[in-house]
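Retro notes (design track)

What went well: tokenization of the new backbones is finally stable.
What didn't: we kept losing track of which sequence belonged to which structure.
Fix going forward: every design gets posted as structure first, then sequence, in one message. First example under the new rule, 277 residues:
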């Protein structure tokens, strides 16, 4: 009994300490697989990677001065992430001033001529979200800003549940579908119904999954067959109980451009549960 317990503990330690690449770990940025010249590793339950390939996909810069590593140009704020090889302290700086200091679970290190940094910490400091599934780590870049917050996902509310979309291009398209056509605030319209062909509600979510805004499209009652060229439309702001006029030409354009790719994409996400009529 004790012998079995001993080997079980050894196996658990092996899983924690063995390089992540040994288990086929794949890392992607916005759906694009990242290729490394040195494999990611797990240290103290944190994934460490040579950061430059990821930073470049995020359009950030990485510079090395002695044992100091500086990651910058990842957003318009001018902030930079500063780490030091062998030190568990990291700082967020701007114009040489420290904005915040962090303590890492493990210090950055050099192995085989490559500098390894903690993946989740660096990614989240650059404004990204990090999602884990067996064998896969997905880094999701921040999307467009709404009310001062980056939109990372759109959750479609359906009669039988919800479907979340975090693929950046589709998120960008859905946000522009809403805000490009949004016009002046209006009174609650009569004889209009919620358009629910691809979800009755469109919840724009931040990195933590919180709702930034939730919208419904309203179309003339009984006019579903007009899709996507409705004669008139409104937007309903669910969180604030307000109505806005909406330009139906924008709606028709978004669903008509690129061979109707938005309709096809939403249909794929709904897995056959959606219908345009």
């Amino acid at each position: 009994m004790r012998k079995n317990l001993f080997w079980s503990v050894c196996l658990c330690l092996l899983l924690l300490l063995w390089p992540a690449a040994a288990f086929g770990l794949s890392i992607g940025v916005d759906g694009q697989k990242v290729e490394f010249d040195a494999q990611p590793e797990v240290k103290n339950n944190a994934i460490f990677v040579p950061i430059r390939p990821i930073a470049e996909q995020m359009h950030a810069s990485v510079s090395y001065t002695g044992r100091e590593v500086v990651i910058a140009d990842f957003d318009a704020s001018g902030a930079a992430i500063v780490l030091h090889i062998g030190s568990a302290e990291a700082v967020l700086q701007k114009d040489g001033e420290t904005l915040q200091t962090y303590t890492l679970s493990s210090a950055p290190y050099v192995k085989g001529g490559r500098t390894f940094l903690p993946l989740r910490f660096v990614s989240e400091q650059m404004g990204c979200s990090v999602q884990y599934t067996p064998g896969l780590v997905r880094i999701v870049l921040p999307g467009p800003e709404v009310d001062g917050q980056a939109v990372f996902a759109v959750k479609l509310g359906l009669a039988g549940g919800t479907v979340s979309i975090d693929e950046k291009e589709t998120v960008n398209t859905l946000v522009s579908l809403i805000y490009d056509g949004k016009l002046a605030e209006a009174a609650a319209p009569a004889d209009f119904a919620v358009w629910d062909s691809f979800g009755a509600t469109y919840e724009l979510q931040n990195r933590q999954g919180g709702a930034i805004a939730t919208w419904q499209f309203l179309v003339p009652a009984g006019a579903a067959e007009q899709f996507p060229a409705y004669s008139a439309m409104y937007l309903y702001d669910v969180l604030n109980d307000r109505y806005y006029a909406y330009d139906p030409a924008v709606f028709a354009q978004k669903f008509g451009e690129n061979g109707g790719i938005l309709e096809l994409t939403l249909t794929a996400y709904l897995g056959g549960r959606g219908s345009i009529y």
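Added context from the reviewer: The chain has two domains: 21-140, 145-270.
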